[in-house]
Every structure is written in C-alpha cells, then in structure tokens.
C-alpha cells in the first residue's frame, strides 16, 4: 500500500464536485483517469488529503460539435477520442496526436481533461490545444469562465487554474476549406513522452498558397511553444523547400530546450528543426488533397 | 480513515471487502481476493505486469484504487481459460515460447486480449506498439510477437471455417 492516507469522495454531479473542492481548499485534488496522479501518489511526491473522484460524472463524458466548434467533455477517455469518427472528421490533428499518448492501457483510463490540467511540457494534448488555440471551460462554485490555450499554460505542470476550480470542457475551432494538419514526434519508445513533438495546421487558398497557419512545438520549453512568426513568414506563400528552410532556421534560433537524461539541448534543437520541416510538408500535402 | 466497502465481480465471482481508500486495485486483487496471477512490478504504470480488464478494457490495476472498482466487473489472468481450456492466445504463448520467465506474462495476456478484440487484424507494427506498454526483461520479445501473430492467423482460420 504505497500512497499516503486520504479521504475519498465520489460526487454525483458537477455542483457536488465543486462544493467538495471549495471545502477541501488546498488539501483536495480531483482524480480523473489517475494515470499521472496515482504514479506520483505511489511515489509519495503528492499526498493529497482528500481525493474527489469525477469518474461518475457522466455528463462530462461526451464528444459533440456544431458548425464551428468541436466540444469534448473533460472526463472523455483518451481511447474514446482516439476512435471517434467525429473527432477524426472535424479535427484530425487530435486523432493523430492522441495515438501517441502512453499505451492502450493508459489511454483506456486517461482522460482528455486530466492530460491538459497536468500540463506536462512534452504531452501531446496540451501541444495540440496550443496549436489550435482551443478554449478551456473552467468552473468553480462562484463562476464559470473560459480561457484560451495561449493564456492557460503558465509553466511546467502549472496552468491558470485555482485549487477550487475544475475543467469541464474543451472547445476546439473547426477549420473549413482546404485544410491540412500534421503531428509528429520523436520518443525513445512508442508511447513514451516525446523528446520533441511538432503540430501544424494550415489552410490553403485556391492557388495553393497559405492563407492561415498555426505551428507549435512541445518538449522544447516549459509550455508548448507557439511559433508566432510562422504565419507572418508563410502567409501568401507556397510551401517550398526555401520557405520551409526559413521556418526551420527560425525555430532552431528561437527554442531554448534544456538538457536532461534523455537528450541534450543540441539534440532537441535539431529535432525541433527536423520535425518542423516534416509537419510543414505533410500538412501542406494533405491540404492539397 | 474509515474503511469503505468494495463489491466487485472478478472472473464471474463476487467479492465484498472493507478496505482503506488508498488500497490499490492490484493489492486488492492479490491480497484481499487471493488472486495472485496478477503481478505487481513498478507501481507507477510503466511495466504493465499488473494489467487487468476492467469492464472489458485493459487497464493498469496499480493506477486505480480498489474503491474506484466498486460495482464493476474485473477479469484477471485466472479468468481467461474457461472450463480448464486455455484461450488460443494462451496456447500460442506456450507454443511460441512467449512465456519466458512468466512474470510479465499475465499483464501481456490481458492487454493483447483487449487489443485483439478491438483490432482483430493488426499489423506487426501495431502488435509491437501495443507490446511497448509492457516491460519484459527476458529477451527481445520475439516469441511474444510470434505468439500474437499466430493467434491472429488462428483466429482468421476459425472465422473462415465458421463462415
Ligand atoms: C506509462 C505511462 C505513459 C504515459 N505516457 C504519456 C505520454 O506519452 N503523453 C502524455 O501526454 N501523457 C502520458 N501519460 C500520462 C497520461 O496517461 C495521463 O492520462 C494524463 O497525463 C493525465 O490524465 P488523467 O485523466 O489520467 O488525469 P489524473 O492523473 O487523474 O489527473 C492529473 C492532474 O489533473 C488534475 N485534474 C484531472 N482532471 C481535472 C479536471 N477536470 N479539473 C481539474 N483538475 C483535474 C488532477 O487533480 C491531477 O492534478 C503516461 C502515463 C503513464 C502511466
């Protein structure tokens, strides 16, 4: 029995969960899939005094869309998202990314929301959320608010959420027209956290020129890094070797990864460059159809 | 902390025990229910030895608390064979020497059973990707991959015969 003792609550609905969060203050923690929380509890790096289990909140387990937005409830399992035809059709970048999260057995349990709130800088979902500037819907007993991904991630494992708040839904914009996307990562073994990952979505006009583009990298900074200049450099351009090279150089100059046990900073920088070129080419080819 | 009652069905049999909320499902299965076929390795979700099926899906039993399995259905490696007859997958593990030392085998069998149900015609790449969720320290997984590939072939033959 490895984790420290805790009180366990199984709220029946969102309002009960929020009131438990409010009353437990800094001692309470939500448990969703438990695939990040339980390992750190087993290692006693986290010793929450109170666990609020949201697995029974079936209202937060859904995938839905209208014309403009794909909506996913926070408790939706990663494996459900992975196999959803709706997600694939409306936002293929998510489908592609989710397959890289851990393994079959962890995706069966891990949730969309848990991965986003956990905010690991190498994690796939935070990167996709940044790449598409999705919106997070967050509730506490006092208020419900929404935050864009660009403002949500603060630093390693830290987001713009208070201990009394809960993520309920994520909303992703649906792009229309000639859209292509690509997600690529290099990990030491399939299912491991990425050393570096890249995500790109772009839209072409009738002449194969880029009309909109979002490019982001994971594993190179404390939060997913949006390459804001990509749009300025590529808008109105075709994806040529020259244009891609320009972005790759820009990326190599703008990232400042850290060295660790798994890879040196220089190797990560090189990966960032290579993966940038790969996602650009692939997204472009896919948009051309 | 007070104890909580947990009622589960494991391999078709009901179990009812009072446990602390911090008891991991893996410990519950082994210690409270005496089903020691499920093995415990790393206890942080990496090695895969403790994999069981929860309501039909393979999951790490070391990353779930026993209280969370209340009123749910679990299957462990002991529940694969029916009336003493091993499954095709189990037989092929024996035949292709996929068992090796046996410590991680229970978890692998549970994962692959779920995997083949959802994806009956996997490529070798997909088989290897799924096996990457398990750490086996014996060899290079060769016999294990062969056992899974053979099971896919055997299942195909069986489907053909039935149709
Ligand atoms: C072997 C292994 C490999 C993995 N590999 C990867 C990988 O390659 N890429 C990757 O991205 N992840 C990986 N993970 C982690 C992934 O599986 C987790 O699912 C994910 O990081 C957390 O989601 P969860 O639902 O399990 O959340 P939990 O572990 O339950 O929670 C994580 C954190 O989020 C909080 N939280 C959860 N839901 C909410 C909510 N709705 N509102 C407020 N707070 C909330 C919890 O309090 C906790 O702090 C791996 C895990 C394992 C065990």
Quaternary structure state of the chains depicted? heterodimer
Number of strands of chain B: 5
Let me know the number of strands of chain A.
14
| End-to-end distance of chain A | 54 Å
Q: Work out the radius of gyration of chain A.
A: 19 Å
Helix content of chain B: 25-40%
Structural class based on helices, strands and sheet pairing of chain B: alpha+beta
> Uncertain segments of chain A of ≥5 residues (pLDDT<50)?
none
Helices and strands of chain B, in order, run as: EEHEEEHHHH
What is the tally of helical segments of chain A? 12
Number of continuous helical runs of chain B: 5
Pathway (chain B): Alkaloid degradation; nicotine degradation
Pfam families (chain B): Fer2, Fer2_2
Protein name (chain B): (2Fe-2S)-binding protein
GO molecular function, one term (chain B): metal ion binding
3D structure, described in words:
The complex is a heterodimer of chains A (289) and B (163). Chain A is of the alpha+beta class and 289 residues long. Chain A contains twelve helices and 14 strands. In chain A, the strands form four sheets. Chain A has a five-stranded antiparallel β-sheet. In chain A, strands 11-12-13-14 form a four-stranded antiparallel β-sheet, sandwiched between helices. Chain B is α+β, with helices and mostly antiparallel strands. In chain B, 36% of the residues lie in helices and 15% in strands. In chain B, strand 1 and strand 2 form a beta hairpin. In chain B, 44% of the residues are buried. The chains are: A alpha+beta (289), B alpha+beta (163). The interface between A and B is medium-sized, with 29 and 31 residues. The structure holds flavin-adenine dinucleotide (FAD). The site of flavin-adenine dinucleotide has 29 residues of chain A, from strand 2, helix 2, helix 7 and strand 10. Chain B: Pathway: Alkaloid degradation; nicotine degradation. Chain B: This is (2Fe-2S)-binding protein.
């Amino acid at each position: 029995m490895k984790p420290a003792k805790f009180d366990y609550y199984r709220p029946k609905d969102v309002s009960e969960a929020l009131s438990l969060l409010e009353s437990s203050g800094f001692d309470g923690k939500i448990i969703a899939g438990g695939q990040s929380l339980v390992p750190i509890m087993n290692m006693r790096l986290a010793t929450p005094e109170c666990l609020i289990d949201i697995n029974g909140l079936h209202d937060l387990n859904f995938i839905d869309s209208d014309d403009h937005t794909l909506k996913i409830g926070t408790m939706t399992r990663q494996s459900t998202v992975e196999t959803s035809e709706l997600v694939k059709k409306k936002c293929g970048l998510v489908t592609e990314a989710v397959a890289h999260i851990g393994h079959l057995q962890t995706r069966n349990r891990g949730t969309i929301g848990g991965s986003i709130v956990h905010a690991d800088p190498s994690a796939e979902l935070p990167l996709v959320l940044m790449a598409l500037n999705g919106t997070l819907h967050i509730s506490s007993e006092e208020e419900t608010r929404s935050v864009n991904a660009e403002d949500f991630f603060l630093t390693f494992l830290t987001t713009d959420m208070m201990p009394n708040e809960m993520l309920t839904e994520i909303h992703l914009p649906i792009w229309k027209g000639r859209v292509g996307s690509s997600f690529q990562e290099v990990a030491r073994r399939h299912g491991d956290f990425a050393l570096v990952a890249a995500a790109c979505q772009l839209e072409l006009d009738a002449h194969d020129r880029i009309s909109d583009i979002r490019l982001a990298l994971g594993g190179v900074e404390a939060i997913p890094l949006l390459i804001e200049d990509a749009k300025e450099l590529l808008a109105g351009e075709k994806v040529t070797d020259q244009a891609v090279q320009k972005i790759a150089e820009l990326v190599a100059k703008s990232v400042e990864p850290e060295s660790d046990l798994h890879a040196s900073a220089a190797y990560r920088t090189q990966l960032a460059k290579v993966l940038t070129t790969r996602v650009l080419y692939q997204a472009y080819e896919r948009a051309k159809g | 902390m007070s104890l909580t009652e947990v009622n589960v069905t494991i391999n078709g049999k009901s179990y009812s025990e009072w446990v602390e909320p911090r008891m991991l499902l893996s410990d519950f299965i082994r210690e409270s229910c005496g089903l020691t076929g499920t093995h415990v390795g790393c206890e942080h979700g990496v090695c895969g030895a403790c994999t069981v099926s929860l309501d039909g899906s393979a999951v790490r039993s070391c990353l779930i608390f026993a209280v969370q399995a209340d009123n749910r259905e679990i299957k462990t490696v002991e529940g694969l064979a029916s009336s003493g007859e091993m499954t095709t997958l189990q037989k092929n593990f024996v035949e292709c020497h996929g068992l090796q030392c046996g410590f991680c085998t229970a978890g692998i069998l549970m994962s692959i059973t779920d995997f083949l149900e959802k994806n009956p015609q996997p490529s070798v790449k997909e088989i290897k990707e799924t096996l990457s969720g398990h750490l086996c320290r014996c060899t290079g997984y060769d016999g294990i991959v062969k056992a899974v590939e053979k099971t896919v072939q055997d299942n195909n033959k069986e489907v053909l015969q039935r149709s």
